[in-house]
Amino acid sequence: MGGARGSRVPLVGARAVLALLCAFGSVACERPSQAAHSGEIDVTSPGGPRWPTIEPEAEGPELTDADVEKLAVKVPREHVPRVSPQNPSKGPEGAKVTLQVFSDFECPFCVRVAPTLAAVEARFHGRLRVVWRNYPLPSHDRARPAARAALEAFRAGGAPQFWRMHDYLYSQQADLSSAALGRAAQRLGLEPARVEQAAAGNAEYDQLINTDMAAGNAAGIEGTPAVFINDYYLMGAFPESAYALVVERALREAPK
Fold first, then answer.
1. Measuring CA to CA, how many Å separate 40 from each of 6, 44, 185, 243?
2. Nearest-CA neighbor of 146 among 120, 110, 99, 113?
3. Would you put residue 133 in left (φ > 0), alpha (ψ -120 to 50) or beta?
4. Which of the four pLDDT bands, split at 50, 70 and 90, describes residue 48?
5. Is the peptide bond before 225 cis (omega within 30 degrees of 0)?
6. Cα–Cα distance, 192 to 134 (Å, whole number)
7. What pLDDT, on a 0 to 100 scale, did the predictor assign at position 70?
8. N- or C-end of the chain: fewer Cβ atoms within 10 A?
9. What are the CA-CA distances from residue 221 to residues 76, 127, 235 (Å)?
10. pLDDT tens digit string along 171-194?
């Protein structure tokens, strides 16, 4: 995880959230080794992505609705980042609950939480909208190029192609080098040259990334992955049960 930059909205209780996060044992020390060859891209095969082999999130103590305030910080709705059509998403636009994830394709915590959030989306399918926000940390050299490649996939094929690229970038075989991104693009039916060029540098995509990062900073996020479930903020990689508990609360509180 890395610190957010710029002015931020104070999030009272964030330290308590971190303490509970540690109790769940959801800390990853490093990203799993990336393949140095083209290999088979799992997201093009039946069964969906093959996620990195990581010890599953510890479920920790059994959670009840009373734990929501320990897991998440409720922020004023005017401070919740606004979603635009430029943000890749899946799920109904009119869903009562929107889960926004500010993430980094090179962050080990983000690698860990990707399959967890996929499970949450499946669990609440049809009732939850998941929105992607780029937040590449400056300490991760290949995070921004990977984000540009994913945005090129979004431009070329809309949300379906973005999420396929997303799944590849977090998969067991992920290689974030420009050449490997081009090979991945070919397997995904994209134009390899365009994806490689985008990864190398693209002012339009950099502006979109910077807009996401500015929105995250203004909202007060403290690192990656950072998740907003409507107006509940969670920082770090939690187990599925924790996210599900907050989604259930947000569903109950959503306007009828």
1. 41, 9, 12, 31
2. 110
3. beta
4. very low
5. yes
6. 22
7. 87
8. C
9. 14, 25, 7
10. 887 889 988 999 999 989 999 999
Supply the pLDDT for residue 90: 95
pLDDT for the residue numbered 196: 94
The residue ranking higher by pLDDT, 221 or 38, is 221
3-class SS of residue 232: strand
Residues 58, 26: contact at Cβ < 8 Å?
A: yes
Backbone angles phi, psi at 161, to 5 degrees: -75, -35
Evaluate if residue 149 carries a pLDDT over 90. yes
For 108-124, the three-class secondary structure string (H helix, E strand, C coil) is HHHHHHHHHHHHHHHHC
Per-residue pLDDT, averaged over 100-120, amounts to 93
Position 243 scores a pLDDT of 96
Q: Which residue has the higher pLDDT, 39 or 66?
A: 66
Q: Could you tell me if 250 and 233 are in contact, meaning their C-beta atoms sit under 8 angstroms apart?
A: no
Q: How far is CA 177 from CA 35, 106, 145, 203, in A?
A: 10, 11, 8, 19
Strand order in the sheet with 232-235: 73-74, 232-235, 226-229, 97-103, 128-134, 89-90
Per DSSP, the three-state class of 224 is coil
Asked if 74 and 232 touch (Cβ cutoff 8 Å), the reply is yes
Name the β-bridge partners of 128. 97
Question: Which residue type is seen at 132?
Answer: W
The answer to whether 97 and 250 have CB atoms below 8 angstroms apart is yes
Measured distance CA(24)–CA(57) in Å, rounded? 8
